[in-house]
């Protein structure tokens, strides 16, 4: 993102913190905000009926927490819990979407960034699934 757009986005940020073990959001809940993690770690999890939630990824400093706010119907696809004390920058999703509606270049930059995050997470999930279920070496890329 351009420096101008980063500054514009950060003007809407507020600092928040979460204690270790604190739920940040639950799968299926209203996705009305997102965060950039400053310090600490957050576990993304998936509800498994009759069992504990399955951790699918752990995010640390500098990572985007939450993308469901960008895609209608704006409900969380996963849950999130602080694995350690977390400090983060929180953004109001409606305010950011409104900013993007007024600035198509910002909208494009933000959508490209979030798309990149989604692509990396899908690739990571694919590798984990192959490690768990595929024959040895099936996950290797030529």
TrEMBL record:
Q: One Pfam family from the UniProt entry? A: cNMP_binding
The UniProt record lists the Cyclic nucleotide-binding domain at 1-66
Q: Which InterPro entries match?
A: cNMP-bd_dom (IPR000595), cNMP-bd_dom_sf (IPR018490), Env_Response_Regulators (IPR050397), RmlC-like_jellyroll (IPR014710)
Tell me where on the tree of life, at the top rank, the source sits: Bacteria
Gene3D superfamilies tied to this protein: Jelly Rolls (2.60.120.10)
Q: Where are the transmembrane segments?
A: none
| Stated name of the protein | Crp/Fnr family transcriptional regulator
Q: Which organism is it from?
A: Streptomyces pratens
State the organism's lineage.
Bacteria, Bacillati, Actinomycetota, Actinomycetes, Kitasatosporales
